[in-house]
Write a structure and sequence with these properties.
- InterPro entries: Cu-oxidase-like_N, Cu-oxidase_2nd, Cu-oxidase_C, Cu-oxidase_fam, Cu_oxidase_Cu_BS, Cupredoxin, TAT_signal.
- It catalyses: 4 Cu(+) + O2 + 4 H(+) = 4 Cu(2+) + 2 H2O.
- It is an enzyme of class 1 (oxidoreductase).
- Its EC number is 1.16.3.4.
- The protein is 5% helix and 40% strand.
- The chain starts with a helix and ends with a strand.
- By secondary structure, the protein is mostly beta strands.
- The strands form seven sheets. The protein has a seven-stranded mixed sheet, with no helix packed on it. Strands 2, 3, 4, 6 and 8 form a five-stranded mixed sheet that branches.
- A hairpin with a 2-residue loop joins strand 18 and strand 19.
């Protein structure tokens, strides 16, 4: 049997282990950082490919107040780079997978059929989900098997996404294509005059690198022990994809568009900007209480944001580029909007969007500390690698708790089950009203306090870094709601 990364961690230990000659892993060279993979394939010029919009999944049936979907994971050959075929692992054989549009409070059942050669796990990122359907990383769906995931969706309208969550292998399996968007709608949101229909666009942003023949680059897919450990800081691709297309272009009218931005990259954070104003209306957990105008927007892996751009501010024939201020060269480009027509627009962004209940940290039953750090050959939470059988916390159902998260280097931290609100960042309170999040970026040597309330479901869940290579190298902790 080929050793897994967790086997390597157990064999080598997690103390002061220096890996001489391994790029990015020597403790003498400091903490491992994300590494850029250079493509060998011919790359298209930016904005030469039209933006694809993933198909909307249709229920195979609806009965008893529930909608039933079927997602079949299979390998497929698709055109990502023009003129080349790339083998992906996709839901329905597409990359990204189909967009599921669901209704708050209406049960959604997704049957996952695994036609791949490896086990998988499905996680609805941002879903308020019973433990048996949350995608615990050891709840594997074997090749040839299937499993039903039940999502009651007792939660607000929000931009969610779904992806693979297999222990030790989330990074390579998401890199290969196992990701898609999941939109929850409700009456409150639909009563607002926000852009809708074709002007309500899911944009799944990720980075990849490619071999000369179009194959996706990811070191260590052949399973040799120690290969992927060399890239434990995280992997960066040199091609920015939006909805599976490299640096695409979208032709737009001089009207408002709602862009549902999702950072589905393994390790890359984005500083998104257009050179003009963007109106942010939502974050991970749904609508903000009121809109805010931003000039740039940072998204760490796993984070989402909904923004409205009013293209009536631009001239016909003008081109508006969505840039990544955190990248250089081609990685500083994301996509482009070409303003090419006039159309009627009855949408608007009201001054009030929603009611966001503030959680009172004074009612917290307990404050817990979670330290995210490098352990030499793996990543640790509170000095320990992930153990599915060890519960790092046991919050009680209905309780409010404050969790204090401390980092060594940047870690986007994702909490399963319930959304949270950020209380302080390095001791300072965020400006503005509270907002609901499920992922928060810890920057280098930073402490972030969050407050959450555990509701509806007892059982085991996880807290982890959403740099997928960090997650796969043991930066995860299990907790049980009792």
């Amino acid at each position: 049997m080929t050793p897994t990364r967790r086997d390597v961690l157990r064999l080598l230990g997690l103390g002061a282990v220096a890996v001489a000659g391994v790029p990015g892993c020597s403790l003498l060279a400091g903490t491992p950082q994300p590494q850029l993979l250079t493509s060998r394939a011919p790359l298209p010029k930016p904005f030469a490919v039209p933006l694809p919009v993933p198909e909307v999944a249709r229920p195979v049936r609806s009965a008893g107040g529930a909608d039933f979907y079927e997602l079949t994971e299979r390998a497929a050959e698709v055109e990502v780079l023009p003129g080349l075929r790339t083998r992906v692992w996709g839901y329905g054989g597409t990359f990204p997978g189909p967009t599921i549009q669901a209704r708050s409070g209406r049960r959604t059942v997704v049957k996952l059929v695994n036609q791949l050669s490896e086990p998988t796990v499905l996680h609805l990122h941002g879903g308020h989900t019973p433990p048996e359907s949350d995608g615990f990383p050891t709840d594997l769906v074997a090749p040839g098997a299937s499993r039903e995931y039940v999502f009651p969706l007792e939660q607000r309208a929000a931009t969610l996404w779904y992806h693979d969550h297999r222990m030790d292998y989330t990074g390579p399996q998401v890199w290969r294509g196992l990701a898609g968007m999941f939109l929850v709608r409700d009456a409150e949101e639909e009563a607002l005059p926000l852009p809708a229909g074709e002007r309500d666009l899911p944009l799944l942003i990720c980075d990849r690198s490619f071999e000369a023949d179009g194959t996706m680059l990811y070191p260590g897919l052949e399973g040799r022990p120690g290969v992927r450990e060399a890239y434990m800081g995280g992997l960066l691709g040199d091609v920015i994809l939006v909805n599976g297309a490299p640096w695409p272009e979208l032709r737009v009218s001089r009207t408002r568009y709602r862009l549902r931005l999702c950072n589905a990259s393994n390790a890359r954070a984005y500083e998104l900007a257009t050179g003009g104003p963007m109106i942010q209306i939502g974050t991970d957990g749904g609508l903000l209480a009121q809109p805010r105008t931003v000039r740039q927007l940072r998204l760490a892996p796993g984070e989402r944001a909904d923004v409205v751009i009013d293209f009536s501010a631009y001239r016909l024939g003008q081109q508006v580029e969505l840039r990544n201020l955190a990248g250089e060269g081609a990685q500083g480009k994301v996509m482009r909007f070409a303003v090419d027509r006039d159309e009627t627009d009855e949408s608007s962004v009201p001054a009030r969007l929603s009611t966001v209940e503030p959680l009172d940290p004074g009612r917290a039953k307990v404050t817990r500390d979670f330290e995210f750090s490098n352990g030499g050959m793996g990543w640790l939470i509170n000095g320990k690698p992930f153990d599915a059988k060890r519960m790092e916390a046991r919050p009680r159902l209905g309780d409010i708790e404050v969790w204090r998260l401390t980092s060594d280097v940047a870690h986007p931290v994702h909490l399963h089950l319930d959304h949270f609100q950020v209380l302080t960042v390095n001791g300072e309170r965020p400006k503005g009203p509270p907002e609901w999040k499920d992922t928060v970026e810890l920057r280098d040597a930073q402490t972030v306090e969050i407050v959450t309330r555990f509701t509806d479901y007892r059982g085991r869940y996880v807290l982890h870094c959403h740099n997928l290579e960090h997650e796969d190298m043991a930066m995860m902790a299990a907790f049980e709601v009792v």
